[in-house]
Write a structure and sequence with these properties.
The complex is a heterodimer of chains A (281) and B (157). Chain A is of the alpha+beta class and 281 residues long. Chain A is 35% helix and 24% strand. Chain A has two domains: 166 residues, Uridine Diphospho-n-acetylenolpyruvylglucosamine Reductase, domain 3; 105 residues, Enolase-like, domain 1. In chain A, helix 10 packs antiparallel against helix 11 and helix 11 runs antiparallel to helix 12. Chain B is α+β, with helices and mostly antiparallel strands and 157 residues long. Chain B has a five-stranded mixed sheet with strand order 2-1-5-3-4, covered by helices on one side. In chain B, strand 3 and strand 4 form a beta hairpin. The chains are: A alpha+beta (281), B alpha+beta (157).
């Protein structure tokens, strides 16, 4: 039997974390509780974050930034008017994240701290150039996604630290915000490859900004600057997208696993870019 | 063991339980509510669906301590003295039950859907039930049942 603590404030949380070193932090439980049941890990206690109200907030609280609390569930975010209005690319990913039941359970912070390269919210957050806020009893720091997520299942969280939430900067006017995930089946599937693409174009249709982030084709989500730059100043046609796709295939580092081969992932990762021609016309 | 107080099927309940006991075990084994089913135990199938404060949740991924102060509804608490809940009646009328193992979860997810959205389209019904798997694959009649419970609407496409 393992104690389960449910603090209702950050102050209580810091006391509990100090009193129970080695305790695991419980967000939605859709990963942690499955892992514990499989015998992976044996923390002396669990500290659930679900009753700390400020961790569940979603709001525009600083000019130029949207704040998404770490304990906001995927369902809450999917339905939230601020997400609907400002973050359509995150919404597209949330809509295909697990099932409605998993979305009622799982949280944004949990998805980030699990740090799976296949985590559905990650690629959009990389493309949005979001920052995460990490807090401890005595300090707060903000990191870019790439500095927070260090590898499969590894984050920059140190003992005594908690993921407080995600800050999304105000975005340029994107003409295309596109997320697509390819899995072994159409729904309720873990990504074999995913792509989050944000594209801005001028009046003549030439690309002025491009952000491309791929999931499940490397140890973390990967941006490919060479592919982004290849699109600049060009129309979103087959030739420019094929060129960018080739650069992406060279830059990504997928693995073979039970879901797909590295070669398949590499091919499909590039192919997903070609969809933008249809989205863009 | 800790004392946990919550509302179970409309009635206050106090239990002594290990705080990390899974809610599915607490409900099935300790409280005898075997309408809560367990199939995968990993959040994939929805057989263990309960309504927690009105929201469909997976009782295999909840711990007893998390129930403190909350409202739990299982299939056993759905019918009233007047008879079955309209969704239960619709499942019976539409023949939406084969082996029955997924039915409690299907019904509870459907009840929550109709609370939120009185006239869902068939597509919205399918999406709302996407986390409840029927291994008999009797999905058509399940969707029929939810549409029947919702009553005639203009967008039953």
């Amino acid at each position: 039997m393992r104690p389960v603590h449910l603090p209702s404030s950050l102050a209580e949380l810091w006391d509990l974390m100090a009193a129970h070193p080695g305790a695991a932090l419980l967000a939605g439980g859709s990963d942690l509780l499955v892992r514990l049941r499989q015998g992976l890990g044996d923390p002396p206690a669990l500290i659930g974050l679900e009753r700390i109200v400020e961790l569940g907030r979603v709001q525009a609280q600083e000019p130029g930034w949207l704040f998404l609390g770490a304990m906001a569930t995927h369902s809450l975010l999917l339905e939230h008017p601020l997400v609907r209005e400002h973050l359509p690319i995150l919404r597209q990913a949330l809509a295909v994240l697990g099932s409605p039941l998993i979305r009622n359970q799982g949280t944004l912070g949990g998805n980030l701290c699990t740090a799976s390269p296949a985590g559905d919210t990650l690629a959009p957050l990389y493309a949005l150039e979001a920052q995460v806020e990490v807090r401890s009893a005595s300090a707060s720091r903000r990191l870019g996604m790439g500095d927070f997520i260090l590898g499969p299942g590894r984050t920059a969280l140190k003992p005594g630290e908690v993921l407080y939430g995600v800050w999304v900067p105000q975005q340029p006017a994107w003409s295309i915000a596109h997320f697509e995930k390819v899995g072994r089946r159409q729904a309720l599937a873990i990504a074999v490859v995913s792509l989050a693409a944000l594209i801005a174009r001028d009046e003549s249709g030439l690309v002025t900004r491009a952000r491309l982030a791929w999931g499940s084709v490397g140890p973390t989500v990967l941006r490919v600057p060479a592919a982004e730059e290849a699109l600049l100043g060009r129309p979103l046609d087959d030739a420019s997208l094929q060129a960018a796709a080739q650069l992406a295939r060279q830059a990504l580092s997928p693995i073979d696993d039970g879901r797909a081969s590295a070669a398949y992932r590499r091919q499909v990762a590039g192919n997903l870019l070609l969809r933008l021609a249809r989205r863009g016309s | 063991m800790v004392k946990i107080e919550f509302i179970l099927n409309g009635r206050p309940k106090v239990v002594d339980a290990a705080p990390d006991r899974r809610v599915v075990d607490l409900l099935r084994q300790d409280l005898g509510l075997t309408g809560v089913k367990e199939a995968c135990g990993a959040g994939e199938c929805g057989a263990c669906t309960i309504l927690l404060d009105g929201l469909p949740r997976l009782s295999c991924l909840l711990l007893a301590a998390q129930l403190q102060g909350r409202q739990v509804l299982t299939i056993e608490g759905l019918a009233s003295a007047q008879g079955p809940h309209p969704v239960q009646a619709a499942f019976a009328q539409a023949g939406a039950v084969q082996c029955g193992f997924c039915t409690p979860g299907m019904v509870l997810s459907s009840v929550a859907l109709l609370e939120r959205q009185a006239r869902p389209s068939r597509q919205e019904i399918r999406q709302a039930l996407a986390g409840n798997l029927c291994r008999c694959t009797g999905y058509h009649k399940i969707v029929d049942a939810v549409a029947l419970a919702a009553g005639p609407g203009e967008d039953q496409a």
